Fold this protein.
Amino acid sequence: MFGSLALGFYLTRRERSVTSRFSLQFWAIGVLGSLTTFSTFSYEVVLLVEAGSMGTAAWYAIASTVGGLLAAVVGGRVGDVWR
Amino acid sequence: MTVVIGAFAGSAGAVARYLLSGAIQRRTRSTMPVGTAVVNLLGALALGVVLGIDPTPKGWLLAASGFTAGFTTFSTWMVETARLGVLPRLSARAAANLVLLSILGVACATLGYYVTA
């Protein structure tokens, strides 16, 4: 969720300024893209289902995706109004 | 040593993701974020395979899981979904990107795990 917030913020900010292509690739793709991970998220849901905690698995998946999405939106908005 | 292996594997994964997702996205006419979806599903499948095999020595496990962690990305998925339209109303495209990829991701990880475990 933190990475989504930061990426949303950073990408919006960047559209308003001239940052080098290198720094976009470095931060957006390298650092933030790797800080967050989809494969581990998927596998953790599988582990929870395997452990018999269907409810926890569902909540974990829903909370992560909804939370991450909101974080990305908030990050984008903050980047929009930042001076 | 753990940190060094993880760092190299993770950054290799990130570079591979950048190249592959970009190449896929350029080849599609869709405005949906197909490139990110494909790398994420491939990575989830790969992590399932790796954890099913449970390789030894542990350095291999670390390298492989570090690679898939860097290869897949949660934040890009979220930002791209947000850009498909979330507020003030959740668009059908954003909802589809969110729900489909969640379900397919878990399915890929499960498939990879059970094929090899």
Notes: Chain A has a mean pLDDT of 69. The CA atoms of residues 9 and 77 of chain A lie 7 Å apart. Residues 54-81 of chain A form the longest helix (28 residues). The interface with chain B takes residues 3-4, 6-8, 11, 25, 28-30, 32-43, 45-46, 49, 61, 64-65, 68-69, 71-73, 75-76 of chain A (CB under 8 Å).
